[in-house]
Amino acid sequence: MATVNAARVAGYEDELGSLSAGKLADIVIFSGESESESSQSSHSREPGGSTKKRRDPYEQAIFAPQKSIELVLRGGKILLASLRLKDLTTTTTTTTTTGFCEDVAFGNANSKIVCVTDELGMSFGDLEASLGGVYPAVLPEIPPYEPSCRTDTYIPTS
Fold first, then answer.
1. Can you tell me whether residue 140 is helix, strand or coil?
2. Model confidence pTM above 0.90
3. Could you give the angle at the alpha carbon of 29 between the alpha carbons of 2 and 87, nearest 5°?
4. CA atoms of 86 and 98, how far apart (whole Å)
5. Which helix (H) or strand (E) holds 61?
6. By C-alpha distance, which of 88, 74, 67, 85 is closest to 28?
7. Which pick of 86, 91, 112, 113 has the fewest CB atoms within 10 Å?
């Protein structure tokens, strides 16, 4: 696994790199939507328009839509949770010194609970305001005219 090898190379395999007691870890939990619930997370578009089923868990995580993210933890602290896990955020924030959690819209009336005050030293709302309108902090989808990473596509800018 990439995290174990990276931790070994950096000399931190005793502190991180695997899910073990006493080690720090970042964890993302997805909802595991079925194919019918989100074709985006379970299929990829091939050249010519055909689709293929995503079976690799890494590929599923990379292409999962925002709505399928249920929980994000960094070092045991909740950074993001779905509304159905809101009770976890209220018990977690009582153990932090400055933290509180905010209900943030993630496009298309999909909300998540975001707890970043301890990590950033400011609320999510303050972070978004500090961006000055360049890009919103959360994008519901790829913006129109966003440059493609694919070399075989071209999107005109005007």
1. coil
2. no
3. 145
4. 18
5. helix 57-63
6. 74
7. 91
